[in-house]
Amino acid sequence: MKPDTATTGRPRLAAIDKRLMRAFEDFVVESPVRSFGVQALVTRAGTTRDAFYRRYASIGHFFVEVALNRYSLNPTQDTGSLAGDLLVIQREQVQMYTDPVAKGLLLLILDASADQPVTANAFASRFLKPRRDATVTVLDRAVSRGEIVAVSDIEYTLDHISGSFLLRASMPGTQPIDEAFAQKTVLSVLKDLGVDDPYADLDAAVSLLGNE
Predict the structure, then answer these.
(1) At a CB cut-off of 8 Å and minimum separation 6, what does 80 contact?
(2) 22, 61, 102, 105: which one has the fewest Cβ atoms less than 10 Å from its Cβ?
């Protein structure tokens, strides 16, 4: 993980940082979390508010660091086909959003982002953007292979790939995030990008990567 400006000179995951993150993860897994205070966190981690604020500018900053520490910034793999590459991305999203920590963490980040523009900007630039940039590389490879033409609206396509996962993860009453959903989203994106035979391409990708 990259060093943070608030922790210059400190190892990113020193013992106190590890205890703070472990305490947070335990809190989130044990019970639904809608609000979260620094005092409860440092008490459980066996440290102090001063130690927390030497490392993190705010609780929102801490949430972003948890995401950066726990989830991949480049969830991609060159499988030789667009369908395979997309399936790798979507399966990683299944793993991320079904992780026991993810739901509580996502809601807390969204809540902190609404009140703290710095948190919103950090989450967008340090977590979301690298993941989206990695997906752009996947799409560029597909263009180079001749599988698709250059994508005319890249931001829409990136939203198409990730937006439905975010919706299901953050909204109540939605259907499960699972392998079937991952494959459906891949098929939808392939169709939208004008792949010649999206069904055959998806079948080939599943055969290559295995049906989880």
Answers:
(1) 208
(2) 22
* Per-residue pLDDT at 3: 38
pLDDT band at 37 (very low <50, low <70, confident <90, very high): confident
How many domains does the chain fold into?
2
How far apart CA 46 and CA 31 sit, in angstroms, is 20
Tokens matching residue 172: 């109540």
**Residues found in the chain:** 212
Same domain, 108 and 198: yes
Helix or strand (DSSP H, E) at 16: helix 15-30
Q: Would the pTM of this model clear 0.85, i.e. be above it?
A: yes
What is the C-alpha radius of gyration for the chain, rounded to an integer number of angstroms? 19
* pLDDT tens profile 64-85: 999 999 999 999 999 999 999 9
Of the residues 68, 100, 116, which one is the last residue of a structural domain?
68
